[in-house]
């Protein structure tokens, strides 16, 4: 199926649907962002300016979608975080919304429903893996939160001590110490 624009020109069907995904805090600062289209928002400065503008337009709004700088942006807010998924202006909003829902639900499951800035920062590695499991280079790989989390969750308890990274060993030690203090 070939899409047509208002002017009558044709858009070739493509798998490269997602132009970017990001999570911003309640002040509009970047927590995590990933952009997939090399032709738009090419520099970090452009990306951060776009994110600031996006946040300013959406943080008080009660909608779920906005057209900004030629991009269709769907978003969701929670406590002190804003989740965004961007696609081209002619992209199907329902597909972008399903990616956003997959992102939010995956992060929510991953963080045991404790979706807030501090917890995301503590688990940033797993959240980065979640981004990668959902979308690769703009192509949607998966939209089922359970399967995404199954692949993105870092399982330190299953990995032998000799194969764990220093961060994983420290995290495991922290967990053990926390549980011993709670007993």
From TrEMBL:
What is the membrane topology here? Peripheral membrane protein
Where it sits in the cell: the answer is:
Cytoplasm; Golgi apparatus membrane; Cytoplasmic vesicle, COPI-coated vesicle membrane
Question: What are the GO BP annotations of this UniProt entry?
Answer: intra-Golgi vesicle-mediated transport; intracellular protein transport; retrograde vesicle-mediated transport, Golgi to endoplasmic reticulum
Arranged from A to Z, the UniProt key words for this protein are:
Cytoplasm, Cytoplasmic vesicle, ER-Golgi transport, Golgi apparatus, Membrane, Protein transport, Transport
Start and end residues of each AP complex mu/sigma subunit domain: 18-156
Primary localization: cytoplasm
Any one GO CC term of the record = COPI vesicle coat
Q: Which InterPro entries match?
A: AP_mu_sigma_su (IPR022775), Coatomer_zeta (IPR039652), Longin-like_dom_sf (IPR011012)
Which Pfam family is an annotated match for this chain, by its short name? Clat_adaptor_s
Query: Key word Membrane present in the record?
Result: yes
Q: Which family does it belong to?
A: Belongs to the adaptor complexes small subunit family.
Q: How does it assemble?
A: Oligomeric complex that consists of at least the alpha, beta, beta', gamma, delta, epsilon and zeta subunits.
Provide the function of this protein. The coatomer is a cytosolic protein complex that binds to dilysine motifs and reversibly associates with Golgi non-clathrin-coated vesicles, which further mediate biosynthetic protein transport from the ER, via the Golgi up to the trans Golgi network. Coatomer complex is required for budding from Golgi membranes, and is essential for the retrograde Golgi-to-ER transport of dilysine-tagged proteins. The zeta subunit may be involved in regulating the coat assembly and, hence, the rate of biosynthetic protein transport due to its association-dissociation properties with the coatomer complex.
PANTHER family linked to this entry: COATOMER SUBUNIT ZETA (PTHR11043:SF0), ZETA-COAT PROTEIN (PTHR11043)
Official protein name in the record: Coatomer subunit zeta
Native organism: Papilio polytes (Common mormon)
